[in-house]
Request: fold
Amino acid sequence: MRMYLFVSALALALMPGRVLAQTARPVPPADMIPAATASAPLPQPDITTSPEPDSTAVHAPSVQVTAPMSAQISASMSGQLEKFPFRDGDHFHKGDILAEFRCGQQKATLAHAHAEYIKRRGLLDVQNKMKALGQWSVSDLRSAAADERAANADLEMASAVVAQCVIEAPFDGRVSNTMVHNYQYLSAGTPMLEILDDTSLELSMIVSSMELRHLQPGTPFKVHILETDTTYPAAVSRISGKVDPVSKTIKVYGKLTHPAPDLLPGMTGEAQFGQ
Reply:
């Protein structure tokens, strides 16, 4: 019995050392681990590569039909309209009278200035003749010359005022809006009508600045107009001189290859490049 207790105590005394030896056993390096125990490689995700975009393709930008020339005609003077012949949508030619004011007083002032100029011019001619005869005065000649110049200035001023009584069309075009009526009294600067040149319409669009490598003046394209549901041939006419650094876009302008009388400024559509 005493021997049994001694053996048990000895076993308990030796057990911590064995456990310590097992926990302190060195770990073999990774290259010595059997292949069967090595961890399997992680599965790679299935990555599908998208096809490369066509480097020559240009996106289809929105297009607006615009007039190359347009203007808002305002009253050049204060007065009553005496002639206002055109209405919205009417065509006109360069030099046609768009508006005419009643200018009786201004024309009378012009006539008076013209008569005064003739008078002063005659007095100056008399002084020049007296000078040729040797019967002249320096002060009288200088005074007559100054009076003639003053009368001429008054005549030019009166002529400029009368010229404002009539407003002529600066180009061939069409009336796009009217804001006044005939016989209406207007103040100087009052908007009267809006006109535009519809003889050679222009196409305006905004494209990505990255497309500049494919676009240049003369590049052909087609434009489909929504209002007419028709496709028209066109070509790039000019490119803006500045790129918007925020949106990375630039304005591009085009011209129709053939006239299209059914198109009007303000119509919209879509440009089709490379088709």
